[in-house]
Amino acid sequence: MNCREIITKLKSMTSEGNREGMGRFGINVEKALGVSVVELRRLAKEIGKNHELAEELWNTGIHEARLLACFVDEPKKVTEEQLERWVVDFDSWDLVDQCCGNLIDKTPFAWDKAREWAGRDEEFVKRAGFALMAALAVHDKKAPDEKYVELLPLIIRESDDGRNFVKKAVNWALRQIGKRNLALNAAVITAAEKILARDTKSARWIARDTLRELRGDEVQQRLRVKAEKAKRSR
User: Fold this and answer.
1) Which residues contact 1 (CB under 8 A, 6 or more apart)?
2) Do 90 and 129 meet the contact criterion of CB atoms below 8 Å apart?
3) Is 131 left (phi over 0), alpha (psi -120 to 50) or beta?
4) Rounded to whole angstroms, how far apart are CA atoms 5 and 224?
5) Residue range 120-151, pLDDT digits in tens
6) What distance lies between CA 203 and its chain's CA centroid?
7) 113-234: what CATH class?
8) pLDDT of residue 58
9) Per-domain boundaries in the chain
10) Residues 6+ apart with CB under 8 A from 66
11) Using CA atoms, how far apart are residues 164 and 46, in angstroms rounded to an integer?
């Protein structure tokens, strides 16, 4: 299936009801057709991995085609130049999150881009930096704790950014890092207390929401069980 055929198929799947629903969730629907992510994932499996096709799909500018590009691209073939081209095209939180959690976090550039983009000013570029941190916390099982601890000063620094899509991503990154293990849980709780002391509206929201979850019984119990299992397996 080539790019033209895929776009024709996507247009045949257009749903104005889905499009309106996307808009209610804060998704930018200016270039959207209203095709659900479930349907896009199903189509991606049918297409298979194809780096060149992913680039063609991205260049159409259609929202769903760009989501599909994230699903079918091949992480090992992605270049840094490509990522820098794509990141400036981010115009909706869902595109950021899907791209970071399904493609960019699997590339060799993920850690560098997380740090770099988190310090950028553009709202969706900055969100991408923190969304990448969250994705890495979930998917990079081999990363040592030190790599996440090194991110905390950057997260603290950027916690004053009150833009909705940024502060939610900062919070997301903190919570995901703090759910990896007991040591990182303690480190993130300390970081969140520092964020709370900054006393800006966004910092207070980020910190309180993070502390509520990471200090909660559910997270603490799960991390204790995980630690005990790890101890027995040594």
Assistant:
1) 9, 46, 47
2) no
3) alpha
4) 51
5) 999 999 999 999 999 999 999 999 999 999 99
6) 20
7) mainly alpha
8) 98
9) 113-234
10) 57, 58, 60, 89, 95, 99
11) 35
* Residue ranges, the chain, pLDDT below 70: none
Residue carrying structure tokens 């000063």: 153
Coarse DSSP helix, strand, coil percentages of the chain, rounded to the nearest 5 percent: 75, 0, 25
What are the backbone angles phi and psi of residue 76, rounded to the nearest 5°? -70, -20
For residue 113 the two structure tokens come to: 């881009």
| Calpha distance 154→126 (Å, rounded) | 12
Contact 100, 118 (CB under 8 A): no
Tell me the torsion sign for CA atoms 47, 10, 129, 212.
negative
| Of residues 35, 80, 26, 76, the one with CA closest to residue 57 | 35
* Dihedral of the alpha carbons of 107, 112, 113, 119, in degrees to the nearest 10: 170
pTM: 0.94
